[in-house]
Amino acid sequence: MNKITRLLRPAITVAALLSVAACSFTPEYQRPALAVPDQLPVPPATAAATLVSSVAELPWATYFPDARLQGLIRQALDQNRDLRVAMLTIEQWRATYQIQNADRFPTLSGAVSGSRGPSSTPPNDLTTTATGGVTVSAYELDLFGRVKALSEAASAQVLASEEARKTAHISLVAAVANAYYALWADRWQVALAEQTLATREASFKLLKLKFDYGVLNELDLSSSQSLVEAARVTRAQAQRQWAQDLNALNLLLGSTAPADLLPPVPQLDAQAVGRSADSKAASQAVLAALWPGLSELPVGLSSEVLLQRPDIAQAEQQLIAANANIGAARAARFPRISLTASAGVVSDSLSGLFNDGRTAWSFAPSLSVPIFDAGRAKAGVAVAEVKRDIAVAQYDKAVQTAFKEVADALVARRSYAEQAEAQLAQAQAEATRLRLSTLRYDNGVSSQLDLLDAQRALFNTQQALIAAQLARQQAHIGVYKALGGGWVAQPAVAAASTVTP
């Protein structure tokens, strides 16, 4: 075996030295300038907050302190099929990279064989022949960096697939959170509808007695009955929405959501939204009592934060891969040198094969020079350059889309907060109106229709308040998602998730 090694060592050494001395035709990569304004359109009220650069590193378990929601997110991360596909795609690209990178090294194969049979000359005695050897098969000397460029392109695709997984992770966390708060709103809507229905049914029974005794006219009775049936309709709608939102959550989780992780049934106070809240702080306290809170989100100004979004990083890695493919296409226009070498021993006995055997070797370099290909190689370079330009355009579009999403999310967060507070104030005013209308009706000052109208108005504003608060929560989630947060559960996970192709 030492003989074979000594014979092949010069060839392998020469090949390695030539590969190290290889040049590269890959263009120097430069990150495109951000095709968006330098500053994010942060509302003045939040412009003085802390830098947004920490958002991508803010763990979702910190941002979503609700224990039920955390349990649902963990279950989704363990069982969601889309996330599993993204993770398997990473493994696929890693294997592809290993295959491509293997072309940068020689492929060695060994073989040992033996034969025994009569000789071809008299007296035809039995002879034994044993052979053994090692072969280097068609190893390409990467003098112009073609193989290296292909390996770099495959490596960039691995990193791009990892960023795609992070994007899927962020989207899943946000989707589960949105579904959870939608179910929370459904719980409130169902509870509100049931309480309203019970109140209206009790009121209708009293009015029916008055009608039976001739104290109430049929118009007022029919109006009351209409409100009862309207409450039934609303309850059915809310129950249907709950069931559909629960089905959507189960799909995200990949299994049925545990009952103990679902939003609790609210203990609805009929006057909860009618309590006095003369100040903004008091209004915020009422809203906080109705919903589980989210952690405060740091917001800053620089558009550089967009680079922390995984989808932007994915687009950049795809651009890097396209840039490397240009180098491979350019190198394909130059000669290729391949080496095939073999060394072995032949012996009359298997036991003496590697001791007393006769050595044999061969060294067969080959040179392939493109002479005429009807412009194929030149067109290959043009195709690679166009693909690079397409990747640049896709990168710019990804940045611009991210800028829009962040801007929309910041505006939505501010406007929905104002809307929820205004909706609360309206509900409080309607509650006061109902209280006064009830007093006026009891004292014979106003009609039954005035009282029914006040009841209807309060119910509608309470429904609108729940919807506004849901939109407010989802706007907060939208900001967190748009800024690239949510793909780690704890800071330690981030360091452990880096890709090593």
Offer a concise description of the structure.
The chain is α+β, with helices and mostly antiparallel strands.
Extract low-pLDDT stretches: 45-53, 270-280, 490-501
Name the beta content range: 5-15%
How many β strands by DSSP?
A: 4
CATH class of the largest domain: Mainly Alpha
Number of domain modules: 2
Q: Termini, distance in Å?
A: 34 Å
Class by alpha and beta content: alpha+beta
CATH superfamily of the largest domain: Outer membrane efflux proteins (OEP)
- Which geometry do the CA atoms define? elongated
Number of helices: 11
Query: What is the average per-residue confidence, as pLDDT, rounded to a whole number?
Result: 77
Under CATH, the topology of the largest domain can be stated as Outer membrane efflux proteins (OEP)
- Largest sheet, spatial ordering of strands: 1-2-3-4
CATH architecture of the largest domain: Up-down Bundle
Instruction: Profile the largest sheet.
Output: 4 strands, antiparallel
The oligomeric state of the chains shown is single chain
N-to-C SSE string, H for helix and E for strand:
HHHHEEHHHHEEHHH
User: Rounded to an integer, what's the Rg over CA atoms?
Assistant: 37 Å
Amount of helix: 55-70%
